[in-house]
């Protein structure tokens, strides 16, 4: 960041963030199978979508595998690498419409499946699953036994499975995708693009933190890197107007 005083009207504050390193990827030729998958449709946003297992390793966080057994378990995703890989763990990126809460991860040792990790009560869209020790394997199996129940249905949805432990970004709850031309943004409740790039609308708060970041689910409308200039921040202050009869202080 340069010239932080620009936020208070002293010129322009510039936020810079380099593009993050690429996420770990499975070897070329890696294949995926699943216990079931939903047929294609137009999705909740009207765009044609597919939900086949290959979406879970295609490198596109906007696509995902969706099983086809509403509230039925287990849901199983099996990844078969074209060459053996050594894994310190895996990372699941699921979907804001409902995340896998209880699941196990098994690895193939050449003769049988061996347990590598168990997750219970998950609520994170992006969940890193470290193994007790690195494992060399050619196959990984994820078995889901419970998903979140949401208005979008109780399905297993997995956008990406990364072959490694990937730390989650921690953006704030109020998002704004900055256009190429100057604009004044007022933080009000709503989304810029369908159900993406959303804000709750700030009300009462103790401090404000501005950062250049983006939620994985907001791609490609928003990305967590680049440069943006800010020439001021203003607060619309609307205090609570009480009366003497409502005071609960300890005055005389």
Your description of this structure?
The chain has strands spanning 13-17, 31-34, 65-66, 75-93, 100-108, 113-119, 126-147, 157-158, 160-162, 190-193, 196-199, 226-230. It is elongated. It is mostly beta strands. The protein folds into 2 domains: 1-22 and 168-238, no CATH class; 31-162, Galactose-binding domain-like (Jelly Rolls), CATH 2.60.120.260. The strands form 4 sheets. Strands 2, 4, 5, 6, 7 and 9 form a 6-stranded antiparallel beta sheet that branches. A two-stranded antiparallel ribbon has the order 1-12. A two-stranded antiparallel ribbon has the order 3-8.
Pick out its properties:
single chain; 252 residues; mainly beta; Jelly Rolls; 2 domains; six-stranded antiparallel β-sheet; two-stranded antiparallel ribbon; 0% helix; elongated
Could you give the topology of this structure?
Elements: E1 13-17, E2 31-34, E3 65-66, E4 75-93, E5 100-108, E6 113-119, E7 126-147, E8 157-158, E9 160-162, E10 190-193, E11 196-199, E12 226-230
Antiparallel strand pairs: 1-12, 2-4, 3-8, 4-7, 4-9, 5-6, 5-7, 10-11
């Amino acid at each position: 960041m340069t010239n932080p005083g620009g936020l208070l009207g002293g010129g322009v504050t510039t936020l810079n963030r380099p593009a993050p390193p690429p996420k770990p990827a499975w070897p070329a030729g890696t294949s995926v199978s699943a216990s079931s998958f939903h047929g294609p449709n137009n999705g909740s946003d009207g765009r044609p979508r597919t939900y086949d297992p290959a979406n879970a390793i295609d490198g596109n966080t906007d696509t995902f595998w969706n099983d086809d057994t509403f509230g039925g378990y287990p849901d199983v995703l099996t990844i078969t690498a074209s060459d053996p890989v050594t894994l310190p763990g895996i990372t699941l990126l699921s979907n804001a419409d409902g995340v896998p809460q209880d699941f196990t991860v098994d690895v193939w040792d050449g003769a049988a499946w061996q347990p590598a990790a168990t997750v219970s009560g998950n609520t994170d869209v992006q969940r890193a699953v470290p193994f007790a020790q690195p494992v060399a394997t050619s196959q990984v199996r994820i078995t889901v036994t419970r998903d979140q129940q949401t208005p979008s249905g109780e399905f297993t949805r997995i956008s990406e499975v990364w072959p490694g432990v990937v730390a989650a970004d921690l953006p704030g709850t109020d998002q704004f995708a900055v256009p190429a031309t100057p604009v004044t943004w007022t933080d009000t409740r709503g989304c810029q693009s369908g159900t993406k790039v959303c804000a709750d609308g700030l009300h009462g708060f103790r401090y404000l933190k501005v950062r250049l970041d983006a939620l994985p689910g907001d791609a490609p409308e928003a990305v967590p890197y680049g440069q943006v200039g800010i020439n001021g921040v203003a607060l619309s202050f609307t205090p609570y107007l009480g009366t003497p009869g409502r005071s609960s202080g300890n005055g005389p």
